[in-house]
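Notebook, p. 212. Picked up where the previous page left off. The plan for this session was modest: take the two constructs that came back from the sequencing core last week, fold each one, and keep the raw output in the notebook itself so nobody has to go hunting through shared drives later. Recording the first one now, exactly as returned: residue sequence, then the structure token string.
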Amino acid sequence: MSSDHRHDTCANVSRKIAQSCLLTRTRQISRVLTAIYDEALRPFGVNASQFTLLVLIMEFGPLSRATLGRKNHHDRSTLTRNLQPLVAQGWVVEGMPGDDGRSRPLSLTKQGKALLHDAASAWSAAQSKAQSLLGEAGANALMGIAGDLPTRIS
């Protein structure tokens, strides 16, 4: 096979992937939406990923890091990186080890709850901007897809 033929074949494969890759498209959407929420939440000293963790801890806490990671589809190192500033700022606290002697349940502090309350209007503004960008059908489709995701990917 000539190098010209390999180049043409590779270019065709590349073009097909560039035009139809679901991963590429969802990552692009994710980056755009993340920027919208990050910008809105910046005055409160949190980014979108950290804010999501605050919400999940409020909704489902106290809960272990492992459970929080599963709920948000985070690997351990990403979860630790996003959780660390929340603990350092005093917005999240880790409790005493549980019955297993290892897991330490996460919960929001009074300051964390206040932050969540104070930043709610900024989140709401970002939510409106994101919904406007996606349109009603797009926003509903994303929420439906997210709702159908499995807890664990094998």
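Okay, moving on. Second construct, recorded in the same format:
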Amino acid sequence: MSVLSEFKAFAVKGNVVDMAVGIIIGAAFGKIVSSFVGDVVMPPIGLLIGGVDFSDLAITLKAAEGNIPAVVLSYGKFIQTVLDFLIVAFAIFMGVKVINKLKRAEEAAPAAPTKDQELLSEIRDLLKAQQNK
């Protein structure tokens, strides 16, 4: 079996296709979450803390000299990234929690027995009653 045919067999397996779809949907979901965090959540948080934009927070370690740019420690971008991560992680946690709750509710409600199962139960009960006589 050639490498090309092995790769083709690997690439068309269901798991690989499912993984690819998951990655594509995950990337699109990531864009939605990033927009939610940056455009919806962070502006009110910035307003609550007095309009401070974390990404602008920095310490200049060495001022610019001629053609040499300044050396800047941009710790605000790091703080912003950590906050974004925490908000995204919390949103995913809440989503997974809701999905798990729905799964548990679905599993908790057992399906009603079918007519065949009811008939078999009646036959079983009749046979047990005959054996006990």
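Notes on construct two before I forget. The helical segments are 3-11, 14-48, 75-108, 115-131.
Flagging for discussion at group meeting.
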